[in-house]
Amino acid sequence: MSETNTERAVLAGGCFWGMQDLIRKLPGVISSRVGYTGGDIPKATYPNHGTHAEGIEIIFNPEQITYRQLMEFFFQIHDPTTPNQQGNDRGMSYRSAIYYTSDEQAEIAKQTIEDINQSGIWPGKVVTEVEPVGDFWEAEPEHQDYLQHYPTGYTCHYIRPDWKLPKS
Predict the structure, then answer these.
(1) Phi-psi region of 39 (alpha: psi -120 to 50; beta: other; left: phi over 0)
(2) How far apart are CA 153 and CA 167, in angstroms?
(3) What region does 87 belong to: left with phi over 0, alpha with psi -120 to 50, or beta?
(4) Which of 9, 10, 11, 15 is catalytic?
């Protein structure tokens, strides 16, 4: 059996349930888990996560889906133009952020944001934070794969077909 080439991405775009449910279905995504990242509380939990955002850690095969493709999908399933808000969810926990694991990921994230801002397709300028990855505290078991267990559960994430960058 050959060793699979993998890469890690850590993203925050509002409630982690909806993001995980959509991202997990992408070809090349090997695994995902939801948790808390980008904040100040060690061993963050749902009742006590301080300034952390609800995030998702994605392990993917870059030979099947590139980081750029993952970025474009991320910007299609949440509104990156609303500070500290997604749908009805408001507060720092629901901010849009990319936590890069390499200089290459940082450059790809910044270039994708620039391309989106120049496209004029999204409803405003992107407010997504681009920061180096830090601690990722895995969320409680009841939050993992939530919408698979509760298919009619709350989500504010969906694919916006018109929010797609033109192919260059």
Answers:
(1) beta
(2) 34
(3) left
(4) 15
Helical (H) or strand (E) element with 136: strand 136-138
CB proximity list for 153: less than 8 A, separation 6 or greater: 17, 146, 147
Choice among 28-37, 146-155, 157-166 with the minimum mean pLDDT: 146-155
**CB-based contact 61:5 (threshold 8 Å):** yes
66-to-50, 60, 118, 138, 153 alpha-carbon distances in Å = 32, 9, 22, 24, 30
Q: Are 6 and 14 in contact (CB under 8 A)?
A: no
Q: Say whether 156 is catalytic.
A: no
| pLDDT over 60 (residue 1) | no
